[in-house]
Design a protein that fits this description.
The chain has about 210 residues and is an alpha+beta fold. The chain has one domain: Lambda Exonuclease, Chain A. The protein has 8 helices and 9 strands. β8 and β9 form a beta hairpin. The N and C termini lie far apart (about 75 Å). About 0% of the residues have low confidence. The structure holds iron/sulfur cluster. Iron/sulfur cluster (SF4) binds next to α3 and α7.
Length: about 210
């Protein structure tokens, strides 16, 4: 049995464990700390075109089934978990080629739109390394719009950044302290815009009675 085949048994262990940080929360925090707070602390979520397209892409990828072609073995929708970092999340695709195992994350967008993609792949790799007891040097992001598979170098700098992000998100979960909304270009694509109203919030902060 290959290492990736062995991972299939982890399908049984798909319960979201208490006090574990969802890998998706790291992604959301990197996008916008206020959005992360709204989703994971306040329990708010709204769909828009981008979230629906993203969910639809992941559903399609997860439903494609596992594959075994010559020296390539693929498993999809595996739950990954790290006791060391208190992390949990569902992978899109794990591949094994010539004894090398690595995660592949699917994105609806194109490379460069959001820099949090590498961080998400790194978090998946940290889980996989602990589950398999071996080092993983690289992962990949597949961008559906451009049909590009981009390598993610799991170097020390990215690992440090990911581990620091886990600590920051854990602190957010533990304190529940709301980071203030900060209006940026990202707000235009944010499904929580109508709840957050970041420009109104900014005006209120600046408002002074005379
Ligand atoms: S509208 Fe902007 S500030 Fe508000 S949650 Fe979305 S990205 Fe963050």
């Amino acid at each position: 049995m290959t290492e990736v085949e062995n991972l299939e048994f982890r399908r049984l262990n798909s319960e979201l464990e208490e006090n574990f940080i969802p890998i998706a929360a790291l992604n959301q925090f990197s996008y916008c700390p206020h959005r992360c707070w709204r989703m994971f602390c306040a329990g708010e979520f709204e769909e828009n075109q981008y979230t629906i397209e993203g969910t639809s892409l992941h559903d399609r990828v997860h439903a494609m089934g596992d594959g075994n072609r010559e020296d390539l073995y693929q498993v999809r929708a595996i739950w990954l978990r790290s006791q060391k970092y208190g992390l949990i999340g569902k992978s899109d695709l794990i591949e094994e080629v010539d004894g090398r195992v690595y995660p592949v994350e699917y994105k609806r967008s194109h490379k460069g739109e959001f820099e949090n993609d590498a961080l998400q792949v790194c978090a998946q790799a940290l889980c996989l390394e602990e589950m398999l007891g071996k080092s993983i040097a690289e992962g990949f992001v597949y961008y559906a719009q451009s049909h590009q598979r981009v390598v993610v170098d799991l170097n020390e700098e990215l690992r440090k950044e990911t581990i620091e992000m886990i600590a920051v998100v854990r602190s957010l979960f533990e304190t529940g302290t709301m980071p203030l909304p900060v209006y940026s270009a990202r707000c235009k694509g944010c499904s929580l815009y109508s709840k957050c109203l970041p420009q109104a919030a900014k005006k209120l902060v600046n408002y002074r009675e005379v």
